[in-house]
Design a protein that fits this description.
The protein has 5 helices and 10 strands, in the order αββαβαββαβαββββ. It is an alpha/beta fold. It has a domain of 125 residues: Dihydrofolate Reductase, subunit A (3-Layer(aba) Sandwich), CATH 3.40.430. An 8-stranded mixed sheet has the order 5-4-3-6-1-7-10-9, sandwiched between helices. A two-stranded antiparallel ribbon has the order 2-8. The structure holds NADP nicotinamide-adenine-dinucleotide phosphate. NADP nicotinamide-adenine-dinucleotide phosphate (NAP) binds next to strand 1, strand 2, strand 3, helix 3 and helix 5. The site of NADP nicotinamide-adenine-dinucleotide phosphate has 28 residues, from strand 1, strand 2, strand 3, helix 3 and helix 5.
Length: 191
Amino acid sequence: MIPDRSGRFSDWHNNLKKMNKPKISIVVAVSENRVIGNKGKLPWHILEDMKRFKELTTGNIVIMGRKTYESIPEKYRPLPNRINIVITRNKDYSEKKIIICNSIQASINEAKKFNKEIFIIGGAQIFQQGIKYANKLYLTIVKGNFEGDAFFPDYSEFKKVVAKKESRDDNYQYTFLDLGRTVKKVRHKGS
Ligand SMILES: NC(=O)c1ccc[n+]([C@@H]2O[C@H](COP(=O)([O-])OP(=O)(O)OC[C@H]3O[C@@H](n4cnc5c(N)ncnc54)[C@H](OP(=O)(O)O)[C@@H]3O)[C@@H](O)[C@H]2O)c1
C-alpha cells in the first residue's frame, strides 16, 4: 500500500495499531506540587473526584500496588464491578477475588486478556513504573501545595488536552484534566 498525499496510509496504519493496542490510562488526583498521598492516605476527601473515579473505572480493569490495595477499607475491596489486579513482589500473597501479579509488565499482560480499558490507579511506585505504558491521563489537579510522602512522576510528555473542567467544593478547588500523549507526525519518504 502506497500512502497518498492526504496521509490515508497513516490513518489506516494508526487504526490497525489501535485495534491491537489496548487503552491504558492513569487516573490520579494530584496536587500542584505533585503530592498524591500522605502516610498511606489521600491528603484530601473530594466526593466529586471519587464519583468520577467510579464512573471511569466501573466495568473496566484497575491495576494497583499492594499498598494502595490495602489502603482501601476492607468492606470496599476488591473494588466492585471491576477486575482488580494487585502488584506485589510477595509470591505468597493471597486474597480472594483479585488477580495477583509480581510485576507491572505481568499485570499489563494479564489485563490485555480482557477487552476492557485498563486503568493504572496507583500508588506512587506503580505510577512511577507504569506511566510509560499509559496513553492517557485522567488527572484531578487539586489546587495548592500539600504535605505528603507519595508523589506523581513527571508527566510533561502528556501535552494534548483532551478535556478540561474546573470545579470546587467547600474545601478544595480542582481541575479535571484529561491529557493524551503528544501526537507524533508521521513522515513519509519523498513528501
Ligand atoms: N491521589 C491518588 O490518586 C492516589 C491513588 C492511589 C494511591 N495514592 C496514595 O499513594 C500512596 C501509596 O503509594 P506507594 O508508592 O506507597 O505504594 P503502591 O505503589 O500502592 O504499592 C507499592 C507496592 O507495590 C509492589 N510493587 C511495587 N513495584 C513492584 C514491582 N516492580 N514488582 C512487584 N511488586 C511491586 C510492592 O508490594 P510488596 O511490598 O507487597 O512487594 C510495593 O510495596 C498512599 O498514600 C495512597 O493513598 C494516591
